Amino acid sequence: MSINLQRVGEATIPDGSITTIKLANDAVTDPKIADGSIINSKLAALAISTGKLQNNVVTLAKSDRALKIHHLLTDDTEAAEVGTTPTEIKTYKFIKAANVNEGFVPGMLIIQADLKTSNVAQQAKMELNIDGGAVVITLTSVSLTAELLTGEADISALADGSHTVSVKLSNADVAETTTNQLFTSFLEK
User: Labelling 188: which of 7, 33, 78, 158 has CA 20 to 30 A away?
Assistant: First the structure.
């Protein structure tokens, strides 16, 4: 004896008709989620815990600056220069090498320095260049008291090897003085 079955109709569920309350716990499982269907805007803040991250998935480019490797140089020797000609007040060297410190290859030069002028109408200026090249960081101030400033330069294109940073001071007026005392330099991976 044979049985003949025939489909008489197929119900379709319209888009948007299944609400959260109608879903049973654990009804949506990994195999039912299409690759690429969960996007950033659908994730709550802090929804992915540290334990859920695979090793090496958070790159330095995506990490907070405080987590990155830094090399530090500081100097608190006061220097003052009069006039408009940029005059070198200090130099220092750093090494960029791919095979040092477990692959520490600096990508940014960051400086923090205080700067002041002897006349608020005339701008104090600090300039940094690397290996005698173009100025890569410029800081300016019209403060009569030491103003803390920050600047940064992308050094990722520099070749491996030793590099010399030159720090110069000048003022917008030939008779006015620019002063720097605190100077800090970071190399950031």
Answer: 78
